[in-house]
Design goal:
Order of helices and strands: EEEHHEHEHHEHEHHEHEH
Radius of gyration: 18 Å
Mean pLDDT: 89
Helix content: 25-40%
Distance between the termini: 27 Å
Low-confidence stretches: 2-44
Strand content: 15-25%
Structural class: alpha/beta
Amino acid sequence: MIAFLMRLLSAAVVASHLFNHVTCIPIEDGTSSRNASLVELETSATPAAPHWVIYSDQWVSGENGPPDPSAVKGFNTFIISFLLTSGAADQALEWQTISASDRSAIKSQYAAAGIKLLVSVFGATEAPTTAGSDPTTVANMMAAWVKKYDLDGIDVDYEDFGAFDGSGGSAVAWLKTFTKQLRVHLPQGSYILTHAPVAPWFQPDAWSGGGYLAIDQAVGNLIDWYNVQFYNQGSSMYTACTGLLTKSGGAFPGSSVFEINANGVSLNKIVIGKPAVKSDAANGYMSPSTLASCLVTAKNMGWSAGVMTWEFPNAQASWISSVRSKVFA
């Protein structure tokens, strides 16, 4: 999808999403005419948990938009990456450039298969707070793009680690404003809104401005779930069921699934994110069978939020089938 980790690891080790985003075109600077009041956002169109989420950023030979739904059977959320402040890149750019009729056909096929289509924004190559981007303006632009290109929602993969690890709490304030403004144009009941923070950002008493616990307290009611990145945080972090689920320890204590829940985050909003294969992350990989065993434990403890993976095509239908096989088949 890591700058505070630079204190512990090399810059090469800490990159969450390993593919750079090199081709962009501008977004039209239009905004939606809809001005829904935030106080009216009472109903949610969010699919019920569990959420089985897969990202797609790689170019795939012969591809014309997302793959046939059969290739990702077992997932119910497909996220194309990335939409940047400068425009669409990678799979978001591909979605933008295919014909409107192709987009419509793919959207219909995915809907029939029960799979929502979202776009992820920012990613590891963009630092919007540090760059001085205005959160309201960016939210207006990105919401307009989601509507224009007929997607089911937006995923906020904010990775401005310099701002988040800073002393002024600027990242927290930026994300609060950005999330509220997205919901003005992408209201609950019509669009899905997720965030994809790294797990340590939920660590209590560790981040200026309160970190993601403060974000959840302020605007968590506007966020449908969190695609939490339980990877790229160090070679010993989140690699066994105990560290992933109940006692993270190490450099980031208090950031496992049930510890995050104990800190106030709704349990079934904590989607467990893992790389599809070892090469999709610097560390934090679990085999599908090991992850499946962890899900049994989590389910027995009351969790059923689901799993996110980075990324297609290294993860496909067979990957999620294995992950779900022991308790969510």
